[in-house]
Amino acid sequence: MSWKGLLAGVGVGFAAGYLVANKVQEQSHISSEKALKMVKQALSHKGEVTGSWVHMVPETFEKYDVAYEVYRGGLTTILNDIQERFEFLVDAKTGTVLEVNAA
């Protein structure tokens, strides 16, 4: 086997691995626990978080004619002895908070 053939094979292998890794990464979701942690950080100005939950399985949500895979969840905060509950939707791929509503 010549060096050219060996180098060509190695090059093709690296290129294929790179393409497969990018494709897998595009389709993967962040974990629901990570999404919940990101929401807690984003809403920390609403008070101390005393309780939270998140659905483990993403669901499809459409907003402005754009479909998202989202995690649905909620949390409870206390600020100045006032308890508030919120429900949220988080993009399962990016972790972006798409919607927060007082429950």
Automatic annotation (TrEMBL):
Instruction: Provide the species name.
Output: Bacillus cereus
Entry protein name: PepSY domain-containing protein
One Pfam family here: PepSY
Domain PepSY, residue spans = 30-100
